[in-house]
Design goal:
about 425 residues; alpha/beta; TIM Barrel; Lyase, Ornithine Decarboxylase, Chain A, domain 1; eight-stranded parallel β-barrel
């Protein structure tokens, strides 16, 4: 008996055979399920879901989410442009940059998206140029330390993100002096947050500040919802969060005097579980202490295990009933790049296909060409049909932006002085 591992109803080995490895595969059914789950959890309020483009920026994914009703959370002008190219209206995009030039802010204004400003100096400059003629939003740092790895904690006192809530008096002086039209307040405290009380604590900070702004249209609570990476992993209780945050939000709107939109910016929650990275076992290498499985991928394709100490479940889809053995799965990069230490896998043979799970978020988007390796293809499985949505890179792609100099440039025509 051979139990096939299916992605959206299509056997993983068939996908690997058709499109080659390494290969990112996305199941749209999972995205649709997660989107519905989030909307159901917040069905009490006027919810605006803004997908975090940084998590998975393939145009086909963006179009799928736009069709479901999502807006877009963009953190660079390039993400804004991708969103517009994917068919989003400018008013569906919130642009929340960090540390960018004023020219990038001006380009966003020209494109018509709402700019979410995260430092007082930029806010003041924005106000001096646009005054009340161009509405904007403000990102607040609530001084809450929450999230998983310290690299993804963004709301604490030492974070580079946002305007500190303790700068409130200075903030209000700038807003009033520059006659700014503030239409939204925003926070994002981090990622992989389990405790829904973290969001409620941050919400109270925003609600209190919101009383200072009479023309708000929305309050944006960011994201950071924990998803399952390990079997039986603990996750954010979305139903509990939706019920409690919605109830408190409606109370605030009654106090404020009119209804506002409640915005969230999920990335992982919508696309993490949809993605699988399929890789091929190139070599089985026993050493005196470890048995390594070397695969045809590496941290250049999925950096999360090395960068965040992240766990990704790994399965041998070619030999699902093989005897379980302990392996360390590693990549082909010229430094230690480990996908998983001491993992129990069904016996791995050269040529077997391994599935690295939960690779939809911050997988391909954080990939690179280290060691001059090429990035993989991306495939979408929709209603049982597989379609290529990004071709595999070729060597020509690595050379496309280089400007090689002629050999004559390196010829040194000045003679060396004679030795005496």
């Amino acid at each position: 008996m051979n139990e096939q591992y299916l992605i959206g109803g299509v056997p993983a080995e068939e996908l690997a055979a058709q499109f080659g490895t390494p290969l990112y595969v996305y199941d749209t059914g999972t995205i649709r399920r997660q989107y519905r789950k989030m909307c159901d959890a917040f069905h009490f309020v006027p919810l605006k879901v803004k997908f975090a483009c940084k998590s998975l920026n393939n145009l086909s994914i963006l179009k799928l989410l736009r069709g479901l009703g999502a807006g877009l959370d963009a953190v660079s002008i390039e993400e804004v442009q991708l969103g517009l190219f994917a068919g989003y209206r400018a008013d569906e995009i919130l642009f929340t940059p960090n540390g960018v030039s004023f020219e990038e802010i001006q380009e966003a204004v020209r494109l018509g998206v709402t700019v979410n400003i995260d430092n007082i100096a930029m806010l003041e400059r924005f106000g001096n140029v646009y005054g009340s003629t161009v509405p904007c939003a403000i990102r607040i740092t609530p001084h809450i330390e929450a999230g998983g790895h310290h690299h993804i904690q963004t709301g604490h006192i030492d974070s580079k993100f946002g305007i500190s809530i303790f700068q409130r008096r200075h903030l209000m002086r700038v807003v009033k002096t520059c006659d700014l039209n503030i239409i939204g307040l925003h926070m994002h405290t981090g990622s992989d947050i389990l405790d829904s009380q973290v969001f409620l604590q941050g919400a109270e900070i925003l609600f209190d500040l919101a009383k200072e702004f009479p023309h708000l249209r929305f309050i944006d609570f960011g994201s950071g919802f924990k998803v399952a990476y390990k079997p039986d992993d603990v996750v954010t209780d979305m139903d509990d969060l939706g019920r409690n945050l919605s109830s408190r939000f409606l109370e605030f709107c009654a106090e404020y005097g009119r209804d506002l939109d409640l915005c969230v910016e999920p990335g992982k929650f919508l696309v993490s579980e949809c993605g699988t990275l399929l890789v091929k076992a190139n070599v089985i290498k026993p050493t005196i202490s470890t048995v390594f499985v070397g695969v045809d991928s590496g941290q250049n394709h999925l950096i999360r295990p090395m960068f965040y100490d992240a766990y990704h479940h790994i399965m041998n889809v070619s030999n699902p009933y093989g005897l379980q053995r302990v392996y360390t799965v590693v990549g082909y990069i010229c430094e230690t790049d480990t996908f998983g230490w001491d993992r129990k896998l069904n016996e791995v043979r050269e040529g077997d296909i391994l599935a690295i799970r939960n690779a939809g978020a911050y997988g391909f988007t954080m990939s690179n060409n280290y060691n001059s390796r090429l990035r993989p293809a991306e495939v979408m499985v929709h209603d049982g049909r597989a379609a290529l949505i990004r071709r595999r890179e070729k060597l020509e792609d690595l050379l496309a932006t280089q400007v090689p100099l002629e050999d004559s440039f390196f010829v040194h025509h000045t003679e060396r002085p004679a030795l005496v």
